[in-house]
Design brief:
Blueprint: E1 2-11, E2 14-24, H1 40-48, E3 55-60, E4 63-64, H2 69-75, E5 76-79, H3 91-101, H4 108-117, H5 133-147, E6 151-154, H6 163-178, E7 182-183
Parallel strand pairs: 5-6, 6-7
Antiparallel strand pairs: 1-2, 1-3, 3-4
Helix pairs in contact: 3-4, 3-5, 4-5
Length: 184
């Protein structure tokens, strides 16, 4: 469903990669590895549509993501380095806000259950600025789960997490793949 054809990317007159092609179908995961400055985040930004390739194209169901932008963004969820949560809002309010940004109906009971599932039952009423990094990441992961997207694009999703949170994220990824989802 996600295809990359002959992708190339330059940053500051430096070629990061070229001739990159791959296809990701249902229940598949692509692990992107490399050292700092090698173009991992640049590639993920191209896959999300946040950047434009210098050459080649990114396709969703055979169509350029530039031409099927609304459909693609409904089917894709991105979790970057930053958690994308508002510090002044509590976890439930953050999930309501994320739902509104995605033009998705918000069901408070489902949001609360997802937050509890991710170990945040004692933090539901606290502003996110009072949460640890790992707890904030769990709020962001809750938004990812509630998005209902078939494609997850995750930029270093395990960074800064303790061993329990790493296990939780790995389990969520496995569940998503077993349900037919895709992960980059």
């Amino acid at each position: 469903m996600l295809s990359v054809r002959d992708l190339a990317c330059e940053r500051s007159d430096r070629l990061l990669f070229k001739h990159l092609s791959f296809t990701l179908t249902l229940a598949q995961m692509l692990l992107v590895q490399g050292g700092n400055g090698q173009g991992k985040t640049s590639l993920l930004r191209l896959l999300t549509g946040l950047g434009r390739p210098d050459h080649g194209e990114v396709l969703w169901c055979g169509e350029s993501i530039a031409r099927c932008r609304d459909t693609y963004h409904r089917d894709m969820a991105y979790l970057g380095h930053a958690n994308g949560i508002k510090d002044e809002l509590n976890p439930v309010e953050n999930l309501r806000f994320q739902g509104a940004l995605q033009n998705r109906p918000f069901e408070q009971s489902q949001a609360v259950e997802t937050l509890k599932r991710l170990g945040l039952s004692r933090c539901l009423d606290l502003p996110c600025r009072a949460l640890s990094f790992g707890q904030r990441r769990r709020v962001a992961l809750s938004a990812l789960l509630l998005a209902g997207a078939s494609l997850w694009i995750l930029d270093e999703p395990l960074t800064g997490l303790d061993v329990h949170a790493v296990s939780l994220v790995e389990g969520l990824i496995r569940e998503h793949l077993h349900a037919g989802g895709m992960v980059v």
